[in-house]
Amino acid sequence: MGSSIRTFGTGATWIFTSIILDRYFHVPLLVIGMLFGINAIVGGLSQIYGGFLGDKYGLKRSIITFSGLATLGYLSQLISISFIRSGIVFASAFLVTNILVSLYQPSSNAILALSSKNTLGSFSYLRILTNLGWAIGPAAGGFLIDYYGFPSIYYISFGTSLLALMMYLFIVDVKQDNRLKKAELVLNDWTMISYGLGVLFLFILISQFSVTLSIYASVFISLNYSSIGFIYLTNGLVVVLFQWPVYLAIRRIGMWRGILLGNILYMIGYLSMGFDSNLESFIISMIVVTMGENFTTPTANTITSIIAKKGRMASYMGAFNFFSSIGRSIGPTFGSEVLSIVKNRILLWEILITPGFVSLGIFNYLKRKIKA
Fold it and tell me: Could you tell me the CATH number of the domain that includes residue 280?
C-alpha cells in the first residue's frame, strides 16, 4: 500500500519533469536527455550498493533509512521549483532524490521475493497496487499544472512520500541466511550478466515511455498537459485491470514466453504511435504498450529471483536494477537525439524500437539455458 501511495506522487511529477525542464527552465532537449541518462547511470550504480547494504545490514532498515532521506529529497524539489526557481538547483535535487530512491529499491524487491512462495504472483499484485497510484497521479498532475502551474505537483510528491514512509514502518522484516559479511561482486556471475544485457536492451526500449513519449506528444502532436496525463492514466488503469489475468496467462505459457511476448507488444505499441494524431489513437497505442509492460515487468523480476544465490537476494535485485537503469540512461538520450534529428514520425518510432530486436534475441537464447 505504501508503494501505491508513493507512486501516486511519482506519477504526478515524473512524466512532467522533462516538460518542466523544457518549458519552465528552457533546458535544451539534448541536455534533458543527458540529465536523465546521468540520473539512470548513477541510479544504477546506487542500486548495486543499495542491494549490498540491504543484504548486509537488513532489508527493512535499508528501506526506512533511504526512504526517509528520499522524502527530504522531494521536499528539496518542491523548494527549488517554488521558491528558488533555478534549473540547476532543481536538476540537482532531482538527481539526489532519485539516488536515494535507488538505494532502497533492491531491498524493497528482495523483501517481497523472500516473503512469498509465489514470487510471480507477488510481483504481479505489487504492480496492481503501485499502478493504482500511477493511474491517478499523471491525470491529477496534468490537471494541477493546467490550473495551478508546475510547482503545484511537487506538493503531492512530498506529501505522498512522507505518508508512504510512515506505512513502511509497519513492514515485517525478513531475515536472510548467509547474510553478507563483506562486499561481493554480483557482476562476476555470468548468468546474471547475460540476463542483464537482455534487460539493458529491453529497458532502452521501455524507457521511451517517459521522456521521449511525453515530449513527442507535447511537441510533435501538440497535446495539452491534461491529455498527456490522461494517456498515462490509461497506462495505470490497464495495469490494474489486466495485470492479474496476464499473471494467470504467464503461469500457463511460462516466464520466458511471457517476457518475449511483452517485448513484442512494446514494439508494436510504440510503432503504432508514429501513426497517432489525436488523444483517442494514443490511448489505443498506450493500451498495447501497457499490455507489454504487464507481461515483462513481474516476469523480469521473478527470473532475477530464480537466478539469485542464497543470502544475496537484494544484491541480485540491485544488479537487475543496475542493468535496467543503464538501459534507462541510454533510452532518454537515444530518444532525445532521435527526436531532435528525425522529423518523420513513422521513421522516428521505427528507429526507437530497434533495441527491442536485440533483447528478443538475447532472451530467446537464454530460455534454453535458464529454467524459469
Answer: 1.20.1250.20
